[in-house]
């Protein structure tokens, strides 16, 4: 009996008879061990990352770590590509070159991932490329690097130990003896290497390469950082500035669902009050006693809020200072991995609170005690229409420099009071404080004066609050104080020690309050508001006639209040009692946040008919918001004149 044997099969059977088969098996083994060593390293990083930040992931699941292997495989394939290519061409030669290439990629993997063991606490997301590419932030990183090394020295020891361990294990693998492959053995060896690289480079065999958005297949929104790794998010966020407009609706339906054009009419109570906007660095609600039954580090702010219109459920639109200014001044939240300031659309014509006030005769200025170019603040305030920007270089006394970041808050805020007293009224002035920014330096004469709490930031919050007390004490003696609307908020939140805030809701909770001596009664409002609402709310409070584009709304209007943010490739949309998590394609979570602030009970499951209509309505409104936002930014339609 004769069997038909295809030529390819006969060739394979022939090759398998060669004595070189032993070398081929060893070459496979060496490839698997070295590639596996790199993947193991990323799994180690994921476990240690979780241990450092376990309070942010109260309910980790095994699938988070298992699903992460897919992202690690893709990351290793890309990051170690030079090594894999050298292995493909020279399976057992040029081993010194291969070792150098492997260890170089290992150094990149270690440096990026170890960074996020601590930096994640500040941003609650894996680091993206904007940390390295944004002008202003680059300078800040290098300036503060020595202090970072001093504060987190143990991370550098851990990184060095990881590098040493990988080097030792790599050398152990290299002791496996094998002879050089002949051309037939090389052919069989190169095939799996090619497949490994091709599939790994795409993160699987799906139509589109693996991206951060696919992490939601293995985790709820809160746990997405456990699935990804920092090298992956850095690689994926390079050259990702362009905004892609998703046409969810036609024009008519879109306008029915969401309209960002706002028109205010003057009323009989129109007031040309001065406007002083205070953005307190890192003043999350967690640190403020007013929001926590008196438990906090801000005795003065607690007193001031008792005399103000305060929004209990107020949310930031971002997690970085560079994301705060566009949201607060111009109602432009950052809804991508690149901040609006540093993105390719940052030069668009835009509306802003100071520009609108200028049209009503206001003088405009902005004060920040940091270096003049930091965070792109100076450039953005110019785009936003502010006439005068004052930074560290404009401050008259070098002796008040904190040695790291800028001018201490107390003397700088006193300087602001004097500056305001020289301005023509009415005026708009913004102040961005800085002493409660890492490394949390306070003047030596105040050491031991403020509670240290259980986080490094707590003492500096106490000092910054004291500086605000002195600011208001001095301001009360001026001729402009009684005729001023003070808007108090924070740029973003910081580290958490209270479980109530260690979640995707709490990490955005900031104060938003409006204080005007003799004009407004103290009121606590429980409806949702966001930083992007500050611009239209201020115009509404002042009773000024104005028309502009805003991706927020007056907090006193009767339309449905909401808040939007974006983190780890997920949009978070808060409306009334519910919060929706949407990945750009579908809803991955719906939670009743007022009774489930840890977001444990997902109401978006297909079999939950009770909330099906709520989910559909919220998703519709969010999609319309995103489409308007994307369309107007891409097409430079951010002003009323170009609406």
**What is the name of the CATH architecture of the largest domain?**
3-Layer(aba) Sandwich
Mean pLDDT over the residues: 88
Largest sheet: 8 strands, mixed
Helical residue percent?
40-55%
Radius of gyration: 28 Å
The CATH class designation of the largest domain is Alpha Beta
Separation of termini? 82 Å
Looking at how many chains there are and whether they match, the oligomeric state comes to: single chain
Instruction: Provide the domain count.
Output: 2
Strand order of the largest sheet: 5-4-6-2-7-8-3-9
Beta strand count: 14
Q: Tell me what portion of residues adopts beta-strand conformation.
A: 5-15%
CATH topology grouping of the largest domain: Alkaline Phosphatase, subunit A
Number of helices: 20
**What overall geometry do the principal axes of the alpha carbons give?**
globular
Contiguous low-pLDDT stretches (5 residues minimum) are none
The CATH homologous superfamily of the largest domain corresponds to: Alkaline Phosphatase, subunit A
Structural classification: alpha/beta
Describe the protein in words.
The chain is α/β, with parallel strands linked by helices. It folds into two domains: 7-237, no CATH class; 263-531 and 545-551, Alkaline Phosphatase, subunit A. Helix content is 42%, strand content 12%. It is built from 20 helices and 14 strands. The protein has helices at 7-16, 21-52, 62-79, 81-89, 95-123, 130-133, 137-151, 153-174, 183-202, 224-227, 230-237, 251-257, 299-305, 321-330, 353-358, 377-383, 409-421, 456-475, 534-542, 612-634, and strands spanning 261-264, 274-280, 309-315, 363-368, 388-390, 427-432, 484-490, 512-515, 523-530, 546-549, 562-567, 570-575, 578-582, 587-592. The strands form three sheets. It has an eight-stranded mixed sheet, with helices on both faces. A four-stranded antiparallel sheet has the order 11-12-13-14, with helices on one face. A two-stranded antiparallel sheet has the order 1-10. A hairpin with a 2-residue loop joins strand 12 (570-575) and strand 13. Helix 2 (21-52) packs antiparallel against helix 8 (153-174), helix 7 (137-151) packs across helix 8 (153-174) and helix 17 packs parallel to helix 18. The model has no long low-confidence stretch (mean pLDDT 88).
């Amino acid at each position: 009996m004769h069997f038909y044997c295809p030529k390819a099969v006969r060739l394979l059977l022939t090759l398998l008879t060669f004595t070189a088969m032993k070398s081929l098996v060893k070459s496979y083994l060496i490839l698997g061990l070295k590639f596996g060593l790199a993947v193991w390293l990323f799994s180690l990083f994921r476990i240690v990352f979780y241990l450092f930040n376990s309070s942010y992931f109260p309910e980790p699941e095994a699938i988070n770590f298992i699903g992460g292997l897919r992202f690690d495989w893709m990351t290793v394939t890309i990051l170690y590509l030079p090594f894999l290519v050298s292995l493909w061409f020279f399976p057992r030669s040029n081993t010194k070159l291969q070792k150098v290439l492997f260890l170089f990629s290992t150094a990149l993997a270690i440096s990026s991932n170890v960074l996020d063991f601590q930096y994640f606490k500040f941003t609650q997301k894996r680091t993206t490329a904007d940390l390295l590419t944004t002008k202003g932030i680059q300078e800040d990183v290098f300036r503060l690097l020595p202090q970072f090394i001093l504060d987190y020295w143990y991370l550098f020891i851990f990184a060095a130990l990881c590098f040493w361990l990988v080097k030792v294990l790599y050398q152990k693998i290299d002791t496996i003896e094998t002879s050089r492959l002949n051309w037939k053995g090389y052919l069989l060896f190169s095939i799996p290497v090619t497949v490994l690289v091709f599939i790994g480079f795409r993160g699987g065999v799906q139509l589109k390469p693996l991206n951060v958005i696919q992490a939601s297949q293995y985790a709820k929104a809160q746990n997405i950082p456990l699935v990804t790794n920092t090298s992956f998010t850095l690689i994926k966020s390079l050259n990702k500035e362009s905004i892609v407009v998703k046409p969810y609706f036609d024009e008519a339906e879109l306008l029915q669902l969401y309209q960002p054009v706002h028109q205010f009419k003057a009323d009989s109570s129109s007031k040309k009050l001065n406007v002083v906007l205070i953005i307190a660095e890192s003043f999350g609600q967690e640190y403020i006693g007013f929001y926590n039954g008196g438990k906090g580090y801000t005795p003065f702010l607690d007193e001031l809020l008792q005399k103000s219109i305060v929004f209990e459920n107020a949310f930031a639109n971002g997690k970085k200072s560079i994301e705060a200014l566009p949201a607060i001044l111009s109602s432009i939240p950052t809804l991508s991995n690149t901040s609006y300031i540093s993105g390719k659309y940052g030069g668009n014509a835009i509306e802003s609170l100071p520009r609108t006030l200028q049209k009503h005769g206001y003088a405009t200025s902005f004060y920040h005690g940091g270096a003049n170019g930091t965070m792109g603040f100076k450039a953005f305030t110019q785009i936003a229409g502010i006439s005068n920007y004052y930074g560290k270089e404009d401050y008259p006394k070098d002796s008040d420099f904190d040695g790291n970041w800028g001018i201490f808050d107390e003397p700088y805020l006193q300087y602001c009071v004097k500056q305001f007293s020289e301005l023509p009224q009415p005026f708009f002035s913004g102040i961005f404080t800085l002493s409660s920014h890492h490394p949390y330096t306070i003047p030596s004469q105040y050491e031991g004066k403020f509670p240290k709490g259980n986080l490094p930031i707590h003492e500096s919050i106490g000092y910054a609050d004291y500086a605000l007390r002195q600011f208001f004490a001095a301001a009360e003696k001026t001729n402009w104080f009684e005729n001023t609307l003070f808007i108090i908020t924070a740029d973003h939140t910081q580290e958490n020690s209270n479980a109530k805030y260690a979640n995707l809701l709490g990490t955005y909770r900031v104060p938003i309050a409006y204080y005007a001596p003799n004009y407004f009664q103290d009121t606590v409002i429980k409806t949702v508001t966001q930083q992007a609402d500050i611009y239209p709310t201020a115009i509404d409070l002042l009773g000024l006639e104005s028309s502009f584009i805003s991706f927020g709304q007056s907090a006193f209007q009767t339309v449905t209040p909401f808040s939007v943010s974006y983190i780890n490739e997920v949009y978070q949309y808060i409306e009334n009692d519910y919060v929706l998590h949407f990945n750009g394609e579908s809803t991955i979570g719906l939670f009743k946040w007022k009774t489930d602030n840890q977001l444990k009970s997902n109401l978006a499951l297909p079999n939950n008919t009770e909330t099906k209509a709520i989910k559909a309505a919220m998703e519709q409104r969010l999609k319309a918001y995103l489409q308007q936002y994307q369309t107007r930014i891409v097409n430079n339609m951010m002003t009323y004149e170009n609406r």
